Amino acid sequence: MADSSFDLVVIGGGIAGLTAAALAARSGARVFLAEHHNVPGGCAAFYQREGYRFDVGATVVNGFGERGIHRRVFEALGARVDAAPLDLAMMVHLPGKRIARYGDERWRAERIAAFGERYEPFWQRQERIADRVWNFAARLPSLPADLASATHLARIFRARDFAMLPLQGRSLASLLPRDTSPTLRSFIDLQLLITAQSPALATDLAFGAAALDIAREGTFHLDGGIATIATALARSIRHFGGTIAYRTDVTRMRTERGRFTGIELADGRAISAPNGVAAIPYENLLLLLGRSPDPRARTRQRWSAVTAYVGVEAGALPDDLPLHHQVLLDERAPLGEANSIFVSLSAANERGRARNGGRAITLSTHSDPERWENAYRNGGIASLQREYAGRMLAGLERATGKRLTPAFFELGTPHTFERYTLRYRGFVGGTPQRMESANLRARSHRSGIEGLTLCGDTIFPGQSTVGVTLSAINALRPFGISLPASSRSARRAAGRPVSDAASPLALRATIP
Ligand SMILES: Cc1cc2nc3c(=O)[nH]c(=O)nc-3n(C[C@H](O)[C@H](O)[C@H](O)COP(=O)(O)OP(=O)(O)OC[C@H]3O[C@@H](n4cnc5c(N)ncnc54)[C@H](O)[C@@H]3O)c2cc1C
Q1: Rounded CA gap, 109 and 115, in Å?
Q2: Which CATH superfamily is domain 3-83+224-298+428-510 in?
Q3: Alpha-carbon distance 248 to 85, whole Å?
Q4: Which of 21, 189, 398, 441 is most buried when burial is the number of CB atoms within 10 A of its CB?
């Protein structure tokens, strides 16, 4: 078996793994990243067909504001990514009602018009809690608060953060009046489904308040779609001398007396390194360690997704249509399963996204993978695909106000995610942020194996490109690598110098 050695191996080239590899390579480490697919990005990657370039899963870009974590990472890497703020984060379409999710003062007037003045105390409390959470998050916390993280937490904790402690164990729904209207409940559950993967009654209050706040925190457009984050990170890794091996599956994790020693690849190679970052779902990690995922774990993932990729010709849609829409078809039916649908369009005239000036559209809906596993077993897959395709197109019609004739159409199922990202059973979106699984009760970046840390959307703080970026930074800290404060904006973000602002320690200086 051919063998080679590096300072650090990273398993998985989604946003978490790419961020960890890029920051480590920048600090001088010799990095090897193994990625199953032939492009970077995982759930936030792109694919190209017949002249269209689609975002595969994630579409909504956050993290490029003043204190945005992507912005800070790219500044530290010396890489330029131009992010244009969106005027409107998304349009939400409830049956008989459209609600514009503005990030500025227009949101107050919009919510009062949609739900009435009586819910103002709820919205104001939600925003106050979210402000505290964003402020804390800008100091790059690592949770749960175990002994090993104590020094870092002690450095970043401020007296005002104590106000967040009583929020533990409470749900977002506990902020709402008992007799909240069904329309407002639907709206909140709908929004939380895409940002927390669970409804208001179950969602952790601190996480839920911030999850309802992403429009205020800032939503952006990137030329090329959200996958531009991944391609820019991959460029940085190469720039700093790191190695990315695409179409490369890690099949086994090597350990010796409880210490990480390297990985084995499907092509027979072995890569040895004293340190590793597993940037794959926790269930996948267990499989690499020869263990079975526990279906009862409170931090278990629950959702997969069905996606539809639609290409339309030039002129099919007005240029000024909002880029993101969330649609609820039937208020009485459960969310997900092509009853709630997320719709994202490439911008009008965006270069390289759609042939002849057309538009590339990604639609997605939450789905239970078991439904699809059963359909594969029972031979019912074609009719299930037809059913979902029909409802997804009905969602597109609701979002755009037009019955479109797609020039291109393709459906993705949980099986597609499993195939292209290897995610166990096609589970995506990370751990639902329920009271029993968020923040202090989240899964830590520590693996229990010396030299091996974890990141990605099943590790604190959870899903989204922003969330997994924080998890990647946390996964490097035990190796002596921290996010350098390279900009005034980063310092302004937390209202003081960023606590781990010391110049990054060279990995080789801290790892024997
Ligand atoms: C439909 C959908 C919509 C979403 N919408 C948004 C959104 O709008 N905005 C947002 O911010 N987030 C969104 N998310 C969530 C976001 O995409 C994810 O939380 C985030 O991208 C996960 O990144 P990750 O690096 O943790 O995991 P992944 O993206 O899953 O990356 C893991 C990588 O590891 C690789 N891999 C796995 N096993 C192995 C192995 N054994 N060997 C080698 N490689 C391996 C995979 O190929 C994959 O590339 C969405 C997700 C989905 C599915």
Answers
A1: 10
A2: FAD/NAD(P)-binding domain (3.50.50.60)
A3: 36
A4: 21
